[in-house]
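[PROTEIN RECORD]
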Amino acid sequence: MTDQTKYVYDLNEGDASLKSLLGGKGANLAEMNRIGVPVPDAFTVTTQACVAAMNNGGDWPEGLRDQVEAGLARLEERTGKKLGSQENPLLVSIRSGAVFSMPGMMDTILNLGISDDTVESVAALADNERFAWDCYRRFIQMYGEVVEGIAPNVFEDALTEMKESKGVAQDTDLTASDLKELTLHFKQLANDALGGHWTTDPKEQLMRAVNAVFKSWLNPRAEVYRKSQGISRDLGTAVNVQEMVFGNRGETSATGVCFSRNPSTGAKELYGEFLTNAQGEDVVAGIRTPRDLAEMEAELPDAFHELLATMEKLELHNKDMQDMEFTIEDRKLYMLQTRNGKRTAAAAVKTAVDMVDEGLITTDEALLRINPSDLDALLHPGIDPEFSGTAIVKGLPASPGAAVGALSFDADDAAERGGRGEQVILVRYETTPDDIHGVMVAQGVLTAHGGMTSHAAVVARGMGITCVAGAPGIKIDAAGGTVTIGDKTYGTGDTLTLNGSTGEVFEGAAPLVPPSINEDFEKVGEWADAARRLGVRANAENFEDASKARELGAEGIGLARTEHMFMAADRLPSVRKMILAQNEEERAAALEEILPLQQADFEQIFTAMKGLPVTVRLLDPPLHEFLPNLVDQSLLVQKLELTGGSDDDLNRERETLAQVKRLHEQNPMLGTRGCRLAMLYPSIPDMQARAIIRAALAVLEREGETVGVEIMIPLVAFESELKTQRDIVVKAVEDELQQAGKTLDYTVGTMIEIPRAAVTADQIANQADFFSFGTNDLTQTGIGISRDDAEAGFLGAYVDGEVIPSNPFESLDADGVGQLVQIGVDKGRSTKPQLKTGVCGEHGGDPKSVEFFHRAGLDYVSCSPFRVPIARLAAARAALRED
């Protein structure tokens, strides 16, 4: 940076195109001003200034202070007011403004400029002494907490004591005299906390407030939120310094939040809340329970109708659902913010479809607007419609869906328990931004206070988490870990069910039912299918999963694992017979018992997927997984020896123990498994190939069509391995077809899940009709880590410490493992240009990974059934972004 860098932009210098520089709030304020929407005057300190300070140990870049002072001087000239003036004082707000919306995660200071010197002038100019002292006490509290770091309870406790001593319930019931007394008390509390007097110079306060907002970019809650949303910490935040307008000047003034469409459902209807005689933080922080926006028409009709017209204007201009904040000062409307609204997955889909129908956006724009990961929320269960339980309380339906969980009353506790996989419901008086880490892992959130636009509601909707807000009459003892609802008290660990679509809360665990797919969802899927190049298959190994995958749009099965079929109780004895066989004859006899069972399994899958391709992976895990644990078997033998077990039992269990010991490996993941096992026991792939072909022919006979048979050989590292295994499979298949007097198209390919296979893919392709990248194992072998050990050990710390950007088992390590995939594709196609390539690890359902697979030139991805819609949309977005 040089001293010539422009760090401060006046309101009329910006527009929506400068979002990366002015942040979302600053750019949108400038854009509203440009199109004639009433906006209080302002200037914006850029994200570049924040980044420069952040990279310089917090010290401001050269020239920034001078530019802020110059921006203030121009604002004073335009408004005719002056910061700190006793005649016509200027009061300003200082608000953060990140490039991507981060509601409530950073800090705000309101009413800066009010002081002992100016409070009387503010009162006189407004002809409202109560208003002036209300502003002053608010400023001391916000500035004290945000800039000086004074604990929030210092001021909140004093306010509560004041209301109790005056016998009033609401802040608005305090008189001007009460508020003046409270302000003096706040000042004393602040000075006591700081061990001296804080600065009363308004310009110095402004500089420190701007710096505090810079610092809030790195606060813990912002860090947690950024990681959850994939927002880079390198972006920084802008700071908006804006002339204050006041919703707390009496009953002709108000403040509120509104959406141009319902953010829970997407319906085009009035949605918002307001409070008279209040400031914005009262609404979003849940300090007072707000009123439905429709009620404003009766009290402030002119401002209400102007607001409706402005809402429509901003939605049409931005071509997206808008989330807006407004203030009405003495019946005059001002817009303080507009942004694309956080919404539920259901609302995102409905809004996109409706806006296409309304001609506002194209289908391609609609696809780019819906986050693929959000579709996951649409596939979550709801409460069974047949459930007839009686709600114990009904609050506001702040974020839809159903949530069942054990109660937690503290965000840290919820984060810890949720992180262990426990289903928890976070219960709070009202959530604050500092609760974000607990909210993120909770099944649902229940609050006693706050409305539909409160922090809890906005964050829960944005994350697809069920929320019931403002439940009336519930009494929460967070310290004691209890909530009293009606005449019953529930404690930590007790289970409740939330219905975020109705606001109802039920005792215990209500029965849940699978989600239903609506027409809007199906329409988005059709658009995605038309736009994408990548095929989308599913990982499934039974009729139910295969049927669900097909229902959700899968174009086949990319991975049918056969080992799970071996584990079934009705065939495990035969499998163990096969493992314990003393010779090939005994092994063949055991396999003959297993073959019809395998065939029956395949017939179910092929029936569900008839007309589509199905890739069956031959047996992959080591044989010891089908035998008892070494320690357990040793103890069983010892017990029989000590208790005088029968000779037959003892011999049988000793024989099993000997075989377990013989098969035991120190590192079975890299041991005798996959094709290595098949090389030692060729009768296993022979049996499986025969079962596959017999099943395919049976379905063809019964249904009139069958599947595209693709037989996949796992864990290949050498071309010679694959050639040997291919020969076994082809011989078995051709023998079955000859005996049946039938013909059937089939292919034989391999999984690429070992680095050597990727870098010698040109050789391996000589023996393969297709490649399927097993990215779960390729990640383990490519990085050199054990998934179970890494995720239980260091991997979380690596992600938290930003050593790596994300868990490589959740989102593909594109720079490392991704390059192995790219090498495998390129080398394989150098031998066979039309070689079909796909991926069958769970990365196939991760949107970021899908985008990489699209660029790498794969033909398809395969994922779990419920992630198929996510993969379809992610593949479409990848294709559209490439264009």
Remarks:
- The first helix runs from residue 19 to 34.
- The two ends are 35 Å apart (CA to CA).
- The CA atoms of residues 590 and 785 lie 36 Å apart.
